[in-house]
Amino acid sequence: MTLRVYRVRADGTADTVRERREFEAGDPPVDGLRYPPCACARCAGGEAGR
Questions:
Q1: Model-level pTM?
Q2: Residues 26, 18: contact at Cβ < 8 Å?
Q3: Which of 7, 8, 11, 16 is the most exposed place for a label (fewest CB within 10 A)?
Q4: Residues whose CB falls within 8 Å of the CB of residue 30, separated by 6 or more in sequence, listed in order
Q5: CB of 4 within 8 A of CB of 16?
Q6: pLDDT tens per residue, range 1-50
Q7: What is the distance between the alpha carbons of residues 11 and 23, in angstroms, rounded to a whole number?
């Protein structure tokens, strides 16, 4: 899989935020590309899934 992060300007041109990078299935997540842990009160209090 190839991942590229970009921003589209109002005039329609694209501005690259992160260059293209190749990933294979099963590769560990790269720092900065994964979601941060949830900081809501429900999850922080150990009440998730109830």
A1: 0.39
A2: no
A3: 11
A4: 21
A5: yes
A6: 788 888 999 999 999 888 888 878 777 766 666 677 788 888 776 655 54
A7: 31
How many angstroms separate the first and last alpha carbons of the chain? 35
pLDDT at residue 49, rounded to an integer = 52
Residue 22 makes CB contacts below 8 A (sequence gap 6+) with 1, 2
Would you say 21 and 3 are in contact if contact means Cβ atoms under 8 Å apart? yes
Residue where the block lists tokens 């329609």: 12
Query: What does the pLDDT read at residue 36?
Result: 75
Place of tokens 């209090």: 45
